[in-house]
Amino acid sequence: MTVTSDDAELAGALATAAGELLLKLRADSSLTGKELGNAGDLQSNEFLLAELARLRPGDAVLSEESADDLVRLDADRVWIIDPVDGTKEYGISDHTDWAVHVALWERERDGTSGGLTAGAVALPALAVTYTTDGVPIAPANGLASVPRGDAPRVVVSGSRPPAFSDAVAAAIGGEVLAMGSAGAKAMAVVRGEADAYVHAGGQYEWDSAAPVAVAKSQGLWCSRTDGLALEYNQRDVYLPDLVICRPELAEAILEITRRG
């Protein structure tokens, strides 16, 4: 990989390259299931850490697969990465709903706050990477795996769907669709395959940072289920809930999710 001054471009290149590594591992090794997922996490993490150390040596990194020494709390630039988002899905050969997340958090000039300034979500099995580069939202069904009708779609976790999933779908006259990784669900909204993604419980900063960065760059609504802002590079990285949706649906969805 070559040095680039553009952080969004770098995020995209890193996520794409890590995804290619993961596809090769899945195709060439005899590993399956959890063993494949563990090997993928390790190799992708090692690659991303090495490239960030080489290309952005002054930046800190928060990774799902590395110990957090909290040095990042004093840093002005922090990369937040998930080497394999959807490890379970990655370990199943015919699943495409897994991702690689690379996001950048930067401190504001006043030094008191910060936010996501660049990010990328690679969906390697679909051969596509979404970045915070301002590309317009793709037409519905551009990469849809399931044909859709006219009803709005709310994507949720297949293993841990929120208790309010059906109520959210009813509020917007839609239907619920289960899908794998957070990145896959968020990008389904970005490309128009779905209209909203809601989640409650069991996520951390690396699960949503890159998806939220990309979704925000596309003009989508992103918040916690109570409507408050999603904050990153916090001491406690547990960030269990979120709403990503088309802006016109936010009010109706939050009216439900605020109740828990």
UniProtKB/TrEMBL annotation:
Mg(2+) binds at residues 64, 82, 85, 207. InterPro entries: CysQ/Inositol_MonoPase (IPR050725), Inositol_monophosphatase-like (IPR000760). Its cofactor is Mg(2+). It comes from the Bacteria. One of its GO terms (molecular function) is 3'(2'),5'-bisphosphate nucleotidase activity. Pfam families: Inositol_P (PF00459). GO terms for biological process: 3'-phosphoadenosine 5'-phosphosulfate metabolic process; sulfate assimilation. Keywords: Magnesium, Metal-binding. This is 3'(2'),5'-bisphosphate nucleotidase. It comes from Williamsia limnetica. The lineage of its organism: Bacteria, Bacillati, Actinomycetota, Actinomycetes, Mycobacteriales.
